[in-house]
Amino acid sequence: MSRSPGRKQENHKISRELFVLTYGALVAQLCKDYEKDEDVNACLDRMGYSIGIRLIDDFLARSAVRKCRSYSETADVIAQVAFKMYLGVTPSVSCSSAAGNEFSLILDKNPLVDFVEELPAERASLCYCNLLCGVIRGALEMVHLAAEVSFLQDRLKGDAVTEIGITFLRKPEDRKNRRNK
Questions:
Q1: First-to-last CA distance in the chain?
Q2: What pairs with residue 165 in β-bridges?
Q3: In this predicted model, what pLDDT tens digit does every residue of 33-52 receive, in sequence order?
Q4: CB 169 within 8 A of CB 148
Q5: Residue 163 and residue 103 in contact, taking contact as beta carbons nearer than 8 Å
Q6: Which of 2, 25, 84, 158 has the most neighbouring CB atoms within 10 Å?
């Protein structure tokens, strides 16, 4: 039996749509389980973190990326390789600090909200895609890069784009000094 060349991509698209629909159902259930948006946000972050600490192994095995030499290179790999591999989108990256440890991933299209028009008024402080922040934080932590990850802008809240902020917590010099001791 031969397979048509477009079959793999078709399955990938179906898998992504299934994930997006399942994710929406998960967030809806969490909103029922928790009264406060902050609790839902924290739960999504914890779930994402758990996914990230496991997903990094798959990412490193499938992507064959080399060790990043700088925070900007790390941010570029997250945007150009990881987001493309798992979500099928490539966010743009911008450095937002002179120290070179703060970056923004700007998503023109966020596939997790394909089937979401807007957040209900009573859920104004909900970070619907907070799972992504946890995934990034967990994956970075597994490669010994401590970071704070949060949403800076969100289209579901009326912003022009979706922007995820990544702040690496250690200076590159700190990592070099630790190795030389």
A1: 60
A2: 104, 150
A3: 999 999 999 999 999 999 99
A4: yes
A5: no
A6: 84
